[in-house]
Design the sequence.
């Protein structure tokens, strides 16, 4: 299952970044596919990007909401929030575990051998602050004389934007080097921090900072496709605790907003069918999804 | 099948609500604005300028 997940992540990476003509065009993709919402965090200013980033687009719509209204347009972000909500209500944070390019990047970094540390659970709450403050409130409230705000999260925080767009665009268009200032250096510093943090801790950006992950996490309890805890089968062996990349105790908090549904607990740890995949109330038979040796399982 | 099959209605309600929002956005012409934004590079957004 883990190999399948890696393949799915790779496929999504190339679907969301499928424009490989950028070395010739020296520019980003500008075709009609960009009206499609990227499920994971993927900067639309990335030269290879074929879809729009919901977090970037939402900020852009909110920061110009007064300007749009003055010009007779009713752009409130309903199309973008609708797209995000459809993904959230169907998959929740499945998207983070299976379709996010920046999540894949962090997972690959975490494979580098090093001392590994856990992340204090209190830091998980920060991502909701980033969603509320940097994505919604500040772009909406702090505006200039032209009634335009700023995309606070993209501009001051987003390391995915730096990695996928900031660095490649400077390489593609050398003339941009002259415009590099403290803003670029600040964002490079944030990217470097998350790169090192990802080596020693599992998915630190997803757990502490990602506003898209924060949005999807609100749906984890009520999403259409979710992992179900079958309490009557649980022996409290706690095998699920040891494999979880998000450090969730699945048997204690099965609807945790942190669960990215990588399904390691189900396919690599639980031997007692205490965890199953459920679609709208229907539990899939575990034998379909679980194969291979699990923790504590002995070959006979 | 593990246990009884009982349809959960909450996800269907949520999907319907967001589908309605999405359609509202389309009616208001928001996709063209999203496309316009996504097709232009916001330099300050990526830390340049």
Sequence:
């Amino acid at each position: 299952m883990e190999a399948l997940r890696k393949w799915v992540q790779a496929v999504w990476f190339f679907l969301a970044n499928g424009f490989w003509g950028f070395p010739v065009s020296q520019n980003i993709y500008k075709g009609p596919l960009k009206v499609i919402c990227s499920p994971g965090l993927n900067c639309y200013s990335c030269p290879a990007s074929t879809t729009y980033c919901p977090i970037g687009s939402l900020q852009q719509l909110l920061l110009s909401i007064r300007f749009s209204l003055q010009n007779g347009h009713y752009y409130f972000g309903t199309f973008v929030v609708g797209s995000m909500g459809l993904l959230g209500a169907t998959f929740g944070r499945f998207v983070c575990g299976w379709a996010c390019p920046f999540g894949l990047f962090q997972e690959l970094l975490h494979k580098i051998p090093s001392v590994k540390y856990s992340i204090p659970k209190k830091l998980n709450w920060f991502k909701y602050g980033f969603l509320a403050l940097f994505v919604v409130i500040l772009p909406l409230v702090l505006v200039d004389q032209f009634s335009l705000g700023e995309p606070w999260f993209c501009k001051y925080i987003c390391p995915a934007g730096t990695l996928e767009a900031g660095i490649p665009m400077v390489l593609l268009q050398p003339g941009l080097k002259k415009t590099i200032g403290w803003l670029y250096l600040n964002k490079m510093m944030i990217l470097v921090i998350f790169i090192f943090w990802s080596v020693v801790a599992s998915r630190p950006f997803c757990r502490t900072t990602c506003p898209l992950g924060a949005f999807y996490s609100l749906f984890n309890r009520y999403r259409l496709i979710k992992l179900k805890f079958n309490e009557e089968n649980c022996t409290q062996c706690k095998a699920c605790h040891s494999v979880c990349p998000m450090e969730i105790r699945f048997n204690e908090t099965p609807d945790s907003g942190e669960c990215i549904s990588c399904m390691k607990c189900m396919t690599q740890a639980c031997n007692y069918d205490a965890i199953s995949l459920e679609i709208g109330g229907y539990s899939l038979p575990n034998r379909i999804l679980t194969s291979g040796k699990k923790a504590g399982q002995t070959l006979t | 099948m593990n246990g009884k099959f009982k349809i959960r209605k909450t996800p269907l309600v949520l999907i319907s609500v967001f589908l309605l929002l999405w359609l509202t956005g389309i009616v208001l012409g928001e996709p063209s604005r999203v496309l316009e934004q996504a097709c232009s590079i916001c330099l300050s957004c990526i830390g340049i300028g």
Q: What stands out?
A: Chain B has a mean pLDDT of 88.
